[in-house]
Amino acid sequence: MKKEAIARKEDLPDEGQVSETTCKVCKAQIDKLSRKINKESTHLIPLLEKPMRTYNVNFPVRMDDGKIRIFSGYRVQYNDARGPCKGGIRFHPKVNLQEVMELSFLMTLKCAVVGIPFGGGKGGVAFNPKNYSKAEIERISRAYIKAIAHAIGPDKDIPAPDVNTNSQTMAWMLDEYESVKGHKAPGAITGKPIEIGGSKGRQYATSLGGAIVLREYLKRKKQALSKTKIAIQGMGNVGSNIARILAEWGAKIIATSDSRGGTYNPRGLNVPKLLEHNNKTVATFKGGEKITNEELLELKCDVLIPAALENVITEKNAGSVRAKTILEMANGPITPKADEILEKSKIEVIPDILANAGGVAVSYFEWVQNTTNHYWKEHRVNQELEEIMVSAFEEVILTAKKEKCSLRRAAYMLSINKVLKAEKLRGRV
Ligand code: NAD
User: Fold this and answer.
1) What integer best gives the mean pLDDT of the chain?
2) Structural element, H or E, at residue 295
3) Ligand 1 centre from 6 Cα, in Å?
């Protein structure tokens, strides 16, 4: 019968597409790791090279001048073997399906490495919010969520903020989602304002998670934080909060920067004063001497923290890095070639999927609070974050020791094995 050749409805990818495109980051990492993946799982690797489901939506939005413009948005659900997909939504003119897909793969690994029960997803809309009014951004946010509302939800795929989106954007998106569904569903989106179901501590969770990982790392090296000199690139949400936390814990922050330049003081910057000053640019801070971003990356220090953009340490400048350790708080700040150079120079890298996972961990706590309708005190959020980050760090460091490999390779290995194990346990493969 003709009909039998057609897949059953439940086999169809929920109106999304199964992508033909391969995830480049995944392929590159898996090629390096293939010998380290559990032997009984190696035949499953091709399963991870492509996302489970991709959505490309094009939707009209009325601009303030009355004209209609069409916007393109994406949502990729890379893998949901460990739980509902989880990942941010970015607004940026360069957003495209390939980029969203690569980021959704990294989210799959990030959730697995810290052991939270989520898979990986990511989304975005291709436009530059700087060129639009607040009212237009609200209409774009609502129209995008309306277009993908059938594909997301608290038990399916849970978006959050990312580049150029924030708690206000999440509030508009949640409101739109709930209007489409006709009921309240605060667990459908995380990173919301506290007043409508956001979690205490979310604002600085990524930085606190990274600071905990660094503290544990230094403890193992028997190095006191008070004797640790740190340089931080980027003074946005992540950079300024990690500077504050590490300075409160006694570390010496000797340099920081933003897009307009940096400031350097070998005796340690006065961080509270610097944060007060940060509304302009740190480059004009009187408590330090002016340096460029390039100089900051090459400073002699114990720990370098890139917390701004991707691909800032490349094969061109990796040889000039003089830090002993790099804590990757930005996503992908080191290119694969630079990574090899750093490894040869014995500069240890604490990888992004571990170092900056504190944000998604507290997003998970937000989802737990929303689904139980019981809200936690800030102290409890931070305590639970501490436990998750310490145990994830220990798992990664033990694996690196056992396998005699870098922390990055250990983190990838652990997370890929966890995802493949979940696929097998479900009997999907
Ligand atoms: P943000 O927009 O708040 O801050 C970015 C900072 O980088 C700003 O200080 C900006 O001036 C600076 N910057 C921009 N261009 C620069 C340049 N050329 N040189 C030096 N500095 C430059 O962003 P954020 O939320 O702090 O995120 C920073 C990084 O951390 C990003 O890679 C992001 O993907 C990653 N990250 C953020 C979170 C989170 O919870 N916010 C979670 C995981 C990963």
Assistant:
1) 92
2) helix 293-297
3) 47
